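Researcher: Next sequence.
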Amino acid sequence: MNKVVVGLSGGVDSSTAAAILHQQGYEVIGLTLWLMKGKGQCCSEGMVDAAQLCEQLEIPHHIVDSREAFEKYIVNYLVAGYSDGITPLPCSQCNKAVKFDPMLKYSRAELGCDRIATGHYARIRHDHETDRYQLLRAIDRSKDQSYFLYDLEQDVLGHVIFPLGEYPKTETRRIAAEFGLHTAEKPESQDLCLVEANGSMQAFLDKYITPHQGEIVDQGGKVLGHHEGVHHYTIGQRKGLGIAHSEPLYVVALDAVQNRVIVGDRTTVLASECTVQRLNWVSIAKPVSPIRAEVQIRYRSPAVPATVIPLEDDRVRVVFDEPQASITPGQAAVWYDNEILLGGGIIERDSINPI
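Model: Next structure:
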């Protein structure tokens, strides 16, 4: 069956993905998830642009009300995490719990289609020796989004198409213009839709978490300043501390119980290892012995050499060859073998060993 349901956000990437598949002869059905109310390219404005794209391509367009799921799995997840002094990663959670899994289930149940596609920059390859679907980085490393897709499981990967994985972003816009898509010159959206819709992460969180003044202290407990809520800070943060000091200070830890932000110099944010939980082994089966890999601890951070050591309780310990700055509880640690994403998980609190 040459039929595919394409997730449409209203941006140039998903629009071009749909147009490419349409040109290739697929029977394309557009699907937009309504995630939240208010301004934001992924929702109100995005739905209009997605509808216009489907009209232009003369394909059907479905809108699924996913606001309840988004509130449950993303908004509540973020608020609980920041309130507890960690920095959650919403995008990978959203991809798994709100987007890909539900999209595939809806496509199968309501549209009679067993294949979905999105405008993400990543690639999928089937390994015939292991009979596993491998998740690969995009050809355009500067746009690669595989880090946010590490939590997708085999059943989903086996039914997903990423048409843009082989293209650089400049080529995507050229193709969009060639197709005459009205989204061809649409500005880039921000990485996080909630930031785009609310102006800043702080503005979003302040809707749910009452600011509560507390102390900013050094590691010896000396009070250096005051803050309006630990949820305004993240590990490794240097700017916006509002403290005059002889040398740059960084956020070292967040103590939500004592309502304290602990700061120190750059050496104090360096750590040699961490423990990772909520694992998903993607391109390989769970190993029984340590493996060497390149580990990425933030979306904008480079992957660096490390040893990933399986533990008995379905966690791993990641030991870096060189100490890393700002290893942040709640963020994902994702490990690669060159372009192949092997697996990943969430960095645990209190598992980060300083140098």
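Model: The mean pLDDT is 92. The domain at 269-354 is CATH 2.40.30.10 (Elongation Factor Tu (Ef-tu); domain 3).
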